[in-house]
Every structure is written in structure tokens, then in C-alpha cells.
Recover the amino acids of this structure.
């Protein structure tokens, strides 16, 4: 099920309460959204009644229904210091009573319901607890200073949102204090617990007893304690479970009861960890765990597997010999039907292990790699592409909450070091870039992680901000790639911080250009490095200068999409032979940027703009000089635009308001300055410009071709296949609205398609023009599977030229490998080598037999 | 409706292009075939070449005056500013153009003219420094020509070493959208070879080329009428196989047939020969075969 719309709905739900009103309407769900209280039937979703409270400008915090009553209370704050309570008849939404009172000290945070008539909140300074009694005639506030009930002062307090009847928990840094509300409305401290991580809601089980769970961190273990709410000293359950440190702290705990075999009450707990993984605990063990963190992938990169090392130690050989023997005994057992279920499981496990797929070494075809995945929780996973298992995972220390880094977020992963020359004795590593706060001027946190071991090599942080990361096309002697981090003040910071790196950079200093897109402002700027930062001792810091700018008129154009070529894309040839023995030269530049803008009115949802007032403008921009190479307007069209740029073409998807359909367009750009080279004589004599270096400062002679087609689906992501040498024809990978990945041949998006192509064009492979792109059901890469909540598609080249590896991520993750032009360079997996051998042997035998026979016959003929 | 009529009449009365069309021959207009601005298509770029060795101040002034007599309301001027490396921007020339308002409310610039200020001695020196240091020569334009500088200035730069040729060759491509300038591409009109050599211009005068560009319209998705009627294009194509020759169709039958016929003929010939040699007797086989073989040879 898609979570997208559900999440939106959840945000507007403030609280929901089940009220059993009528037999035929089931329970009532009360939803507070945009100042209006709705009662919704749980059976058919019918809105039973509405109560508009928007005139009161109240922010409803809780909706309370006392047991066995038809009345509900909606309580909340108006402004920061006024408390309001509405008594509403749950059957018809009639307002019965409205009470309001001022609390001059103001409130902080949420309201917490402690018992049926007492609410607790914090005052604005977060040093006093405020109890609110709202069901009596008057609203009574009672303020208790924290230091009055807890001896020491521990700094600011935070109310935990756990619902424990008659009690609540307050957190002071590492200390958790349980406070009980007596019948007289007094506050009493029940217990203080250090190292507590999470508290569950109270769960009622037999005879009105209520229990809750408390999780503490002790050393490398977590301690799960189940307590009765009304009897603090009795522990229902006390279990300690060893926990993987890479899962971080416990964030949340939920409990559930079951009846044990001895008919006593058992409890199990579901815990949510810091890395967003989900674990079920029962009887002091982890029953199952799920890596739900993989549902929020931020960025993906790859790493090659280690090279297979020859020469194994004797001990290992002995061990493997033993294993080998054991394995064969097991297999024998299996074939003789003597194996028990455990043995069968062991055999299967061995089969999986020994299969090529899950090997931890580099394979000949380059199919098996490590996918290094960064998730929202700040955890890095290495996934094996063979069987999808997690090889290692690392909760990045630099992306964890700390005193100086309040809300860290991961940004991206880059390949930091890819050893080719020292592949045997050096491990590759990746660079993880994060920020301390979501704002773009927040300080940066860098981590360098070894991709074979999953250990953090070093980390740096809090030096400067980071608006952009630019991997440079240079590496140093240890094959570390040079990276420039651009901060908010447009200063460039060089990594790695070595003098060798500075030397390399100085050499290429004047050739480093970059651009920045200010989408909100509608400006694209180009920059170049100038000199070392002035007034700073940092020699790895460089100032920049603005070279060019493109300012889109704010009233008519808003940047909605940009696309660039992938840095590692390989183009096999620049020339493209066309039908009539002619050649066209692709304009291939690493500095091509595709930008789509649309009218600000039409950049929102559909239906906001009329076709007349919305138009989509697409640009091809050279990012070194800021030259607009091509600019084109689609009238009556609007976003969202999804685009992919590869080689010399860009394909983009948008909505045509006039035709009420989605469209896809292709734009190809060709270089005209090479056209003179067609003369063979010139080539022979040497009068050609094929070897002269190209400067982008020359005036480009380009020509673009474009064509549009209708496309049935709306699109979530577009990618293009990439192969090792770029020879194989390309396919577009389209993430459809149904969360599937569709492969569409690039030949369908060729601006040279025409209604009836000539014979020569047909031979070249040009498909007759149709108005819409075909969707061939067999070309779904995902087959019958859905990649739930698809957000991105990443393609990687395999070593085998014909094959592309595809990784799609969303809530689910999906990996496959595809061959856009079939596997022309390898035999299929089910190719029968035995048959081939047999044939060869048979042929050799036949040769011998016939040879002997012919000898014999000759001899006989000679005798006669 | 009446107000609309009134407006229409007014527009006829006041619109200079419709009411009065000067038959005076303007030098530049004739040269570039942009007479009266009527032929100026919004899509076609206006190309203006200006040679401003010493800026022809007098001629431009007179031309400008002629315009200001007829339609001063639609004439527009905006400044080109330049900077040498990191220096401040200073005035470098003036663009003059006519703003044409279309019936549907759109506005386009036509008849763009450019008068470049000659370099002062100080600027020459600065430019020479740029040439020596292989640094950037930077220009800027306002982003809105109706209310300069608009939101922000549009900047463009080029390596100074790309410009010198005989004189200083420069090429502007100004991308417009109504009264807004989106971008200006500034550079040399030709190629700028890489490694850039230090070369001082022979003449310190600019040879400017200016192109005004508006957005192109994208090609529409093709709509087929057949598709609207029944959508049987795919079938129609499939039904009509390409015509092939008789030989191409039936060669696989013809070749074996031919072989059989050939075989039959040779056999028939053999049969015909044997009776000619008389009834073969058992003893005479060897003898008879000899001459037959000889005959066949």
C-alpha cells in the first residue's frame, strides 16, 4: 500500500478517539484539521458531523472522551498562554460548553493527558510543570517548580508523550523522572532512572491492570522492564538483550500481551531503533528484526568487491577440507533421504554460500558489486548485488545527534578512493557528506568509510558549511579523488587536505568552473576559482568569482527541474552515421546543463493554471561560459518535469494541458564545427581539426533536433542505462506511477523518426513515427513486482559491455541487471556446456572412426 | 464592445507604424531588411553589426533623433558595462532598440543597435594586463530593459585572449523574453584556440556583432487523424506487407524443382543413348561401355 497519501492524512489527524455511537455506523474517528473538527465513520468514511473552530483560532492538542460518556472534550491552546476546553456532544457535534482561561506564564510543547480530568504541560521557561484540571466548573492551573519535586536541577525538561494513567515521565538530559499525580492533584516523584531510552504507553490487561515497558541501555545490552502502572515496585518482566551497537539507541517501544503455555500473562515488545530498524523482543531474545532504515535511501554509490587473493594459509585449507568433507556427508545424507529438517537447512545454506552469486570477490563479468547506501537515519549499508544481503552496516558517528550537531542529516555519498594500481592491498573508501541542520548554511560533517570493512577511517566536521560538493576529475598518488566543497559564502574547500592535492589543483586551477542553481530565486550562476582565501590561514580554502549569470524573469519563469550528464558516463563514438552515407557529430560536453522552467502559476498542482497562461521553457546551457545553446518553449504545458541527459540528448517528461495528456520530448544536439571533416582528402592531407583541442570559448556551431510524443503514464523517475564502453544501445528506465520500472528503447525517442522512413532509414533502425510511445508489457524491468514508493533509479555499468545493473529505491529496494541489446557478448546462464563438450567429443570420435574405416577400406581395395 | 472599438481607434490613431510610415531610407534598415519593423518576426534573430572604430557618434545620434521624432514612446536604451578581472563595472556602450508591443500584449525588441565606447588609455592598460594574465573580461546588462537594472544584472565573461584579432572582435547573443533579458552570451565570433596565445590587437577598436534571440516554439506531438477515427494505424501497417518479386517468394520451391528437372533431363538423355547403342548383352558390356565413354568425352 502506498504510504504517500496516508502520511498526508496522518499529518492533519491530531487525535482520534473511538466512540461507539450507533450500531450501524461503527466507531467514530475524530479528526482535527485546519481548525475544523470532523467526525468520520470508521465503516464507510462518511463525515457524520463537523464543528468549525477556526474562528476561535484554537490549536487543538488533545481530544478526550471520558469512559462511558457521550461527551468529548477538545482541549488546546490559543496563542501561547490561553487554554481552551470545548465540551462537544459526540453524537451530533453540538457545542455544550466552552471554557477558557489565561495562564500568564505561557506554555511550552504539548499537552499530556494524565488522568481523565488532569492534563500536564510545561510552562514557557520549561522549569515548571503545570497541571490543568478542566472538568470542574473552572479551569484550575497548578504550577509546580521542577526543583520542588526533584532535588537537583538538571536543566530543561521534556515531557515524554507516553500515556501512563495517573503518571507521566519527564526527561532531563539523561535522567528520566516518573511523576505521579495524586487524587488531590499533587505531584509526587515515583522514581528516577538514568540511561533510560524509551517508555511505552500503558496497556491494560486482565482485571483492569495496566502495564508499561521501560527500556534502558546498560553497556552493550538493552534492559527491558515491564512494570505495573499502579505498583511501581513489582517488575512483571525483566530481560536483558544483547544489542548490536550499530543499531544505536532505542527510540520507541510498543508492547503487546499474549497467553503463555502455562496460561500466565506474557509480554512482547516491539522496539524501534535509532537506525529505524524494527525488532520484536520476546523471552529475552530478538525474535525477528527488519532493516526498515532501507526504506529511506538518500543516496547510493558503488564499490567493487575485493580481488580474489591467491595463496591461502594451510590452516584455512585444513579447515576448508573439513568443511568440504562435512558438506559432502550432509549432501550424501540429503540424497539418501536421511537428512532431518536442520540438515536440509544446512545444505541449503551451503548451497547459497557456495553459489557464485554471493561470493565476496570480484567476478569476471562485474555483476557483483557492493551498493553503498546512505539512509535518512544516518546509517550506511553495504548491500551485495548478488543476493541483496547486508554485508555490513555502520551508524555514522558524525551523523548522530550530539551537543554541537542537533539535527544531523545525510546528504550524499561519493567514491573517495578507488584503487586500481593497488587493488590488492588497498581498500576503496567512500566519502559521506552530511549537515548538522537541514539549513544549507549549517556546518558540514564528513566521514570517510572503508567499503570492505565498513569501518570509519576518519571524520571531520563543523569546519564550514556545504552548499555543493564537486568531485574533480583528478586523483592523487594514492588514488584519492579530489573534491571541492563549496560553502555558503562561495568559498571552495579542497579535500583531501594534503599538499599534493594542492599541487594538483594549482596545475588545473584556471580550468575549474562550476555553477550554482538558485531555484527559489530563479538565477543560475557560473563561478571560477580565483585565489586563496584572504584573511584565513587555511591554505585549502579558495575564493571564487562569478563569471556569468542567467536571470529568469520571476513573473513568467520558475526553475522546476535541472539535469546533467552523469560524471562517469562513457561515450563510445562522437560520430553517428546516418542513412545516406552521411555522418553527424554529437555535441558531447561534460558541461551541459538542462533546465526546465514553467510559469510560477503552473508550477504547482494541475488545474491551477489555464493552458494559455502556462508554458514550459527548456534550456540547454553550457556551464563553463553560461551560453544558452538552445531554448525552446512548449506552450500550454506544465510540470512536474522529469529529465535525463546522456551523451548528446535529453529526454524529458511533462504534462500537456491542451491535450490533457502527458508528453515526452527528446532534444538532440549536434556539433556542426566537425562537418568539414567529411572530406576524405582533407583527412589524408591532414587538414582537419580532429586533433585540435576544443575551447568552450569558441562560438559553438550547434544544431538541435527535437520531437515530442504522448506518453500514457505519469512518471516518478527517469534514468538511462549505462554500459562499460557505451557501445550498447541505450534504454530509458522510467519509474511509473504504479511503482514499476519500464524499459523503453531510446530508438522510440529519436527526433529523426518520420511518418514513412525511407528504405535506408529503415535499415538504420528508424521506427516509423507514431504519436504516442508504446508501452510493451514485457519490457517492465520489475516484471510483476512493485517497488513501493519508487523515488529513484540508479544504473551502473557491469564489466560486460552488454549489461547494465539497475538499482531502484523507494520504500522497497530492487536490483536487477538488464541487457538493452540482449547479451550479445556472453552465453546465457542455461547454456549447456556439457552438450557442447559432448558434441566435440562425439565429433572427434567420429573423425577417428571414419579415419580408421577409410584406412581399412583403402587396404581392402588394394588387396582386391 | 464600444470601449474596445474606441481603444482600437485610438491605437490606430496613435500607433505610428500604422498611422504614419516614414518612407525615408534608413541606412541600417536597408542593410538588414528590417524596414518598419513589420517584417521583424519574433522568432528571427536580429543581427546587427556595428563597427565602432572611433564610435560613429554623430551618425547614431542622427538616427536616434529620427526615431524620437516619430515614436519616442517605444525607443529603449540600455547600458553595457564592463569590468576587467575583479574591477568595478563601468560604462562600455549603449544598446538602442525599439520596443514593439504586439496585439496580444507581448513585447519584443527590434532593431537593436549598439554603439561601443572606445577604450580609454587606462582601459587599454587594464585590458593589456588581462591579456598578460589570461584573465576574464566581464560584461553585464540589466535583466530588464524597461526598468533597468531589473532584478539583477546579467553577467557574462570571456577570457580576454579570445577577443583580439585584427581589432577586437566581440559577439553578443542576447536572449530575451518580453522586456526581460535572460542571458547574454558574450565571446568571440569565431573560434578561440586552446592554448590561448598572448596577442595584442593591432587596432584598439571593437568590431561588434549582436544577435537578439527569442525562444523557439517546440514541435508538437504529432496527432494522426486515423488515430482519432479508429486507431488502426498499427493494424493497417501490418496488413500491407512489402511487395516481393516472384523469385524472392518462391526460390525455395524453384531450386529443387530445377534440380529435379535437370536430373530428369540427364536421365532422359542417358535413356535415349542406350537404345541407340542397341540392346545391351551380358558379354558385351565392357566393350560397349568403352566407346560410350569415349563418345561422351
Amino acid at each position: 500500500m502506498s504510504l504517500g497519501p496516508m502520511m498526508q492524512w496522518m499529518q492533519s489527524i491530531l487525535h482520534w478517539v473511538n466512540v461507539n455511537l450507533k450500531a450501524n455506523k461503527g466507531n467514530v474517528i475524530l479528526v482535527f484539521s485546519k481548525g475544523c473538527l470532523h467526525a468520520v465513520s470508521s465503516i464507510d468514511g462518511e463525515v457524520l458531523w463537523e464543528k468549525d473552530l477556526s474562528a476561535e483560532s484554537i490549536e487543538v492538542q488533545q481530544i478526550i472522551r471520558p469512559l462511558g460518556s457521550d461527551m468529548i472534550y477538545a482541549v488546546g491552546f490559543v496563542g501561547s498562554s490561553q487554554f481552551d476546553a470545548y465540551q462537544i456532544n459526540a453524537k451530533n457535534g453540538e457545542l455544550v460548553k466552552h471554557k477558557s482561561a489565561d495562564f500568564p506564564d505561557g506554555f511550552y510543547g504539548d499537552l499530556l493527558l494524565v488522568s481523565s480530568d488532569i492534563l500536564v504541560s510545561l510552562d514557557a521557561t520549561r522549569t515548571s510543570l503545570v497541571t490543568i484540571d478542566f472538568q470542574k466548573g473552572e479551569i484550575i492551573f497548578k504550577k509546580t517548580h521542577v526543583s520542588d519535586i526533584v532535588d537537583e536541577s538538571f536543566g530543561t525538561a521534556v515531557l515524554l508523550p507516553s500515556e501512563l494513567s495517573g503518571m507521566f515521565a519527564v526527561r532531563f538530559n539523561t535522567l528520566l523522572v516518573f511523576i505521579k499525580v495524586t487524587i488531590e492533584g499533587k505531584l509526587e516523584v515515583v522514581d528516577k532512572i538514568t540511561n533510560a531510552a524509551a517508555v511505552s504507553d500503558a496497556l491494560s490487561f486482565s482485571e483492569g491492570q495496566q502495564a508499561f515497558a521501560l527500556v534502558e541501555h546498560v553497556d552493550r545490552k538493552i534492559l527491558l522492564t515491564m512494570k505495573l502502572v499502579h505498583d511501581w515496585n513489582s517488575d512483571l518482566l525483566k530481560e536483558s538483550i544483547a544489542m548490536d551497537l550499530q543499531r544505536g539507541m532505542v527510540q520507541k517501544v510498543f508492547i503487546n500481551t499474549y497467553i503463555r503455555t502455562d496460561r500466565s500473562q506474557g509480554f512482547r515488545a516491539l522496539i524501534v531503533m535509532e537506525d529505524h530498524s524494527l525488532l520484536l523482543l520476546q523471552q529475552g531474545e530478538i525474535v525477528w528484526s527488519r532493516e526498515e532504515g532501507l526504506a529511506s535511501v538518500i543516496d547510493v554509490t558503488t564499490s567493487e568487491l575485493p580481488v580474489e587473493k591467491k595463496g591461502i594459509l594451510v590452516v584455512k585449507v585444513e579447515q576448508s577440507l573439513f568443511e568440504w568433507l562435512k558438506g559432502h556427508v550432509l549432501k550424501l545424507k540429503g540424497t539418501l533421504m536421511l537428512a532431518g529438517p536442520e540438515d536440509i537447512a544446512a545444505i541449503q545454506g551451503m548451497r547459497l554460500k557456495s553459489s557464485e552469486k554471493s561470493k565476496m570477490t570480484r567476478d569476471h563479468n562485474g555483476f557483483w558489486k557492493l551498493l553503498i547506501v546512505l539512509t535518512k537515519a544516518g546509517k550506511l549499508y553495504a548491500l551485495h548485488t548478488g543476493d541483496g544481503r547486508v554485508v555490513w552496516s555502520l551508524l555514522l558517528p558524525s551523523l548522530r545527534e550530539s551537543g554541537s550537531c542537533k539535527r544531523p542529516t545525510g546528504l550524499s555519498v561519493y567514491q573517495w578512493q578507488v584503487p586500481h594500481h593497488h587493488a590488492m592491498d588497498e581498500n576503496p573508501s567512500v566519502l559521506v557528506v552530511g549537515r548538522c541542520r537541514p539549513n544549507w548554511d549549517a556546518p558540514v560533517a564528513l566521514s570517510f568509510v572503508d567499503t570492505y570493512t565498513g569501518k570509519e577511517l576518519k571524520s571531520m566536521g563543523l569546519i564550514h558549511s556545504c552548499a555543493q560538493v564537486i568531485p574533480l576529475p583528478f586523483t592523487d598518488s594514492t588514488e584519492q579523488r579530489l573534491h571541492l566543497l563549496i560553502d555558503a559564502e562561495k568559498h571552495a574547500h579542497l579535500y583531501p587536505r594534503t599538499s599534493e592535492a594542492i599541487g594538483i589543483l594549482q596545475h588545473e586551477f584556471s580550468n575549474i568552473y562550476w555553477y550554482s542553481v538558485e531555484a527559489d530565486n530563479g538565477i543560475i550562476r557560473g563561478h571560477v576559482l580565483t585565489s586563496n582565501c584572504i584573511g584565513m590561514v587555511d591554505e585549502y580554502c579558495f575564493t571564487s568569482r562569478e563569471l556569468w549569470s542567467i536571470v529568469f524573469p520571476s513573473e513568467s519563469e520558475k526553475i522546476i527541474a535541472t539535469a546533467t550528464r552523469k560524471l562517469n558516463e562513457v561515450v563510445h563514438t562522437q560520430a553517428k552515421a546516418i542513412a545516406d552515407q552521411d555522418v553527424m557529430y554529437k555535441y558531447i560536453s561534460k558541461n551541459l546543463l538542462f533546465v526546465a522552467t514553467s510559469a510560477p502559476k503552473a508550477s504547482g498542482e494541475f488545474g491551477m493554471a489555464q493552458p494559455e497562461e502556462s508554458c514550459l521553457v527548456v534550456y540547454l546551457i553550457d556551464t563553463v561560459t553560461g551560453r544558452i545553446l538552445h531554448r525552446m518553449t512548449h506552450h500550454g504545458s506544465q510540470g512536474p518535469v522529469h529529465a535525463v541527459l546522456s551523451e548528446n540528448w535529453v529526454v524529458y517528461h511533462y504534462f500537456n494541458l491542451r491535450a490533457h495528456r502527458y508528453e515526452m520530448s527528446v532534444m538532440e544536439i549536434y556539433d556542426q564545427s566537425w562537418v568539414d571533416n567529411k572530406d576524405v582528402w582533407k583527412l589524408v592531407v591532414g587538414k582537419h581539426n580532429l586533433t585540435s583541442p576544443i575551447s568552450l570559448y569558441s562560438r559553438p556551431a550547434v544544431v538541435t533536433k527535437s520531437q515530442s510524443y504522448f506518453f500514457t503514464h505519469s512518471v516518478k523517475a527517469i534514468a538511462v542505462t549505462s554500459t562499460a564502453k557505451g557501445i550498447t544501445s541505450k534504454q530509458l528506465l522510467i519509474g511509473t506511477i504504479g511503482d514499476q520500472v519500464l524499459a523503453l528503447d531510446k530508438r522510440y525517442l529519436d527526433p529523426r523518426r518520420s511518418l514513412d522512413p525511407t528504405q535506408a532509414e529503415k535499415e538504420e533502425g528508424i521506427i516509423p513515427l507514431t504519436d504516442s510511445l508504446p508501452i510493451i508489457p514485457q519490457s517492465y524491468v520489475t516484471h510483476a513486482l512493485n517497488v513501493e514508493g519508487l523515488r529513484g533509479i540508479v544504473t551502473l555499468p557491469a564489466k560486460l559491455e552488454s549489461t547494465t545493473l539497475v538499482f531502484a529505491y523507494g520504500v522497497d529496494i530492487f536490483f536487477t541487471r538488464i541487457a538493452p541489446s540482449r547479451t550479445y557478448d556472453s552465453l546465457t546462464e542455461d547454456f549447456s556446456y556439457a552438450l557442447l563438450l559432448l558434441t566435440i567429443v562425439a565429433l572427434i570420435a567420429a573423425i577417428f572412426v571414419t579415419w580408421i574405416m577409410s584406412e581399412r577400406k583403402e587396404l581392402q581395395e588394394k588387396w582386391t | 464592445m464600444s470601449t474596445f472599438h474606441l481603444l482600437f481607434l485610438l491605437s490606430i490613431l496613435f500607433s505610428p507604424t500604422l498611422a504614419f510610415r516614414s518612407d525615408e531610407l534608413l541606412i541600417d534598415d536597408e542593410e538588414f531588411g528590417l524596414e518598419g519593423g513589420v517584417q521583424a518576426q519574433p522568432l528571427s534573430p536580429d543581427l546587427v553589426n556595428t563597427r565602432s572604430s572611433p564610435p560613429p557618434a554623430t551618425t547614431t545620434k542622427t538616427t536616434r533623433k529620427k526615431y524620437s521624432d516619430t515614436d519616442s514612446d517605444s525607443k529603449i536604451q540600455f547600458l553595457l558595462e564592463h569590468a576587467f578581472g575583479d574591477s568595478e563595472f563601468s560604462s562600455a556602450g549603449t544598446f538602442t532598440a525599439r520596443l514593439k508591443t504586439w496585439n496580444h500584449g507581448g513585447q519584443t525588441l527590434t532593431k537593436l543597435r549598439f554603439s561601443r565606447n572606445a577604450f580609454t588609455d587606462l582601459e587599454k592598460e587594464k585590458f593589456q594586463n588581462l591579456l598578460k594574465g589570461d584573465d576574464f573580461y566581464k560584461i553585464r546588462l540589466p535583466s530588464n530593459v524597461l526598468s533597468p537594472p531589473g532584478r539583477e544584472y546579467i553577467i557574462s565573461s570571456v577570457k580576454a585572449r579570445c577577443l583580439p584579432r585584427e581589432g577586437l572582435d566581440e559577439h553578443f547573443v542576447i536572449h530575451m523574453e518580453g522586456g526581460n533579458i535572460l542571458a547574454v552570451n558574450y565571446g568571440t565570433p569565431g573560434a578561440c584556440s586552446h592554448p590561448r596565445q598572448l596577442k595584442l590587437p593591432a587596432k584598439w577598436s571593437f568590431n561588434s556583432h549582436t544577435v537578439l534571440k527569442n525562444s523557439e516554439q517546440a514541435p508538437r506531438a504529432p496527432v494522426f487523424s486515423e488515430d482519432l477515427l479508429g486507431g488502426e494505424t498499427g493494424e493497417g501497417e501490418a496488413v500491407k506487407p512489402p511487395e516481393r518479386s516472384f523469385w524472392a517468394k518462391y526460390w525455395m520451391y524453384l531450386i529443387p524443382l530445377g534440380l529435379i528437372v535437370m536430373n530428369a533431363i540427364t536421365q532422359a538423355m542417358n535413356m535415349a543413348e542406350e537404345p541407340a547403342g542397341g540392346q545391351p548383352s551380358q558379354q558385351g558390356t565392357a566393350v560397349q561401355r568403352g566407346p560410350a565413354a569415349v563418345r561422351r568425352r
